[in-house]
Amino acid sequence: MKKISLLVLFISLLGCKQEYSYKNKIKEDVAFLADDTLEGRETGTKGEQAAAAYIVERFKELGLQPKGTEGFYQTFTFKPKKGPHGEVDYTNAGEDSTITGTNVLAYIDNQAENTIIIGAHYDHLGYGSEGSLHRGYKEIHNGADDNASGVAVMLDLAGKLKTANSSNNYLFMAFSGEEMGLLGSNYFTKNATLDLSKANYMINMDMVGRLKQDSTLAVYGVGTSPRWKQTLSATNPGFKIVENESGVGPSDHTSFYLQDIPVLHFFTGQHDDYHKPGDDTEKLNFEGMDAISNYIFDVITELDKSGKLAFRKTKNESEETPRFKVGLGVVPDYLFDGEGMRVDGISEDKPAQKAGLQKGDIVIKLGDSAIVDMMSYMRALSVFQAGDSTQVVVKRDGKTVEASIQF
Length: 407
Prior knowledge:
alpha+beta; 2 domains; 10-stranded mixed sheet; 6-stranded antiparallel sheet
């Protein structure tokens, strides 16, 4: 990918007049954040710091006020967790083996009673840290979809809301540390720079850059307020919405739901480049990102005069999720609403690839268990240990195919 000069872009931004003038810069924002120069924006690195500085300049360009603990910034220092189920220890800067992440916060003060929080994480995996699905030599993981796309839509919404829908204040947040376990959003909710009891609701965007031809858009958290479903339906311009009620999921909206704040999380689905070096700018659907930004703006507009939304607890699916010691080595299609578990990607040298499974296969049986959805798939997987073998049955092009799996 062609590298971009940080200095040239910064000079251009700093030279802008501070008067507000909205302009759609979604493509420009993604191109900067997902450029090789930032080396994958891993939490605590110089690349992430350069991304944070860019976001600050964009907030200034839009005429937003700082809302961090140090201007636009809120830093947090932690010791990385030990093992996949370990806990992160937030600590003081300067201690051994610590990493410092940086949230970036900006505010539109409409002198309103309540505040809408709009966020997206901007960190990614650097050269392929823990969480990468890439095998082989180290390469930069630019994270164009994950999650330069969400940040770009967040900035676009900031531009649109600067002079519109003034019944609420707005807090815009670019989170650090999401890939390491929602660290930035979790830290903020425990060290908030505003009164969270006055938070109206929170909207999160994570991986919104790969809208498919059928316009399928996943929206999570629709059960966290009685108003969500009606509003999403009334403002839908033609998306095929896949709803999920739960306020708990693998992105930053979870941190706010756990503070009893209604949440929505927007997501265009997994793809073969997820957590791999191929997640680059040229593969994004920018028209789709524009449409998602407009949709979210319309949702906010529809609710502008509605006051503070009622919060409702939802069933916590993560508490019911079984733990498993083995995997097939597939990326599930989380937008699939049919019966079974559809495969959206295959990892190299994993059981699924060795068994001949293909992208698009729909797993309908694993061992003795029928697979009807993601939960039944995970339950079926949880009974196996490393070294076990079993049969998997999939639907492929209208036919039923059986294969042997060795874990």
